[in-house]
Design goal:
homodimer; 116 residues; DNA-binding
Chain lengths: 116, 116
DNA sequence: TAAGATACCTGGCGACACAAGGCATACACC
DNA sequence: GGTGTATGCCTTGTGTCGCCAGGTATCTTA
């Protein structure tokens, strides 16, 4: 588990959009998906996750809709807007460039790495 | 140039320690080194850089010493402490794990990538 | 009845990147 | 002498946002 919460700040937005693009639709499910897909390394706390989803909705990258689950619980389902898809694309490129730069300075092998 | 300043938040500390470990000693020189070594992608603003150096010093990872340059200007030279070296090692590992996890979710090739 | 998983929300706090401003010296050029 | 550029350090104020801690409610299982 990553302890440093500052790391998450820059990456949370693209992560959320990506997970939603991959078909996860509501908060609880999104949180579980992030945990699982990162091998337990990443965790979006509830106090982080829900405000972040609200921000993305307010900025027009997501649209929300309340539905009732088969078990009867209320769920808020998010889906991406066209602007969200464009934004995700830009964020992915930004993250790729950023992580490549940091890896370069830290001397860590990165995407497009050399081969033995 | 990376626009999103939130990205820098989690990575600035290891970057600074790394650059200092590589032999850069004072603020202005460190800032230039980060810019150059990242191919111009990364920029630590002065209002970010100097407080960060102060934090690292206060936390015992750096030790500072004022010296006069050959041209006569005052410079504050930093060098790593033993605790700083240990901290850098931990931060490098943390960054590596974090970026690997994010790359995995975003579907970006990462360190240890496959080969053509 | 009680616990645990599911599912959402918010207020207050602390950390920190940045903008914008300040101060001082060296050097080149006119 | 004046002006511009590079060097070199600093701080205050502002805004953002992750997290903690707390709240509410439903469903399942023991």
């Amino acid at each position: 588990m990553i302890a440093n919460s500052d790391l998450l700040r820059g990456a949370l937005e693209p992560i959320l959009l990506e997970v939603i693009a991959a078909g996860k639709t509501y908060g609880y499910e999104i949180a579980k998906a992030i945990q699982e897909q990162s091998g337990g390394e990443l965790l979006a706390q509830e106090g982080t996750l829900y405000p972040a989803l609200h921000r993305l909705e307010k900025r027009g990258y997501l649209r929300a809709e309340w539905k009732r689950s088969p078990e009867g619980r209320q769920r808020k389902h998010y889906r991406m807007t066209a602007a969200g898809a464009r934004h995700l694309k830009a964020l992915r490129a930004e993250w790729a460039a950023f992580s490549r730069s940091v890896n370069q300075i830290l001397g860590i092998a990165h995407a497009g790495c050399a081969v033995a």
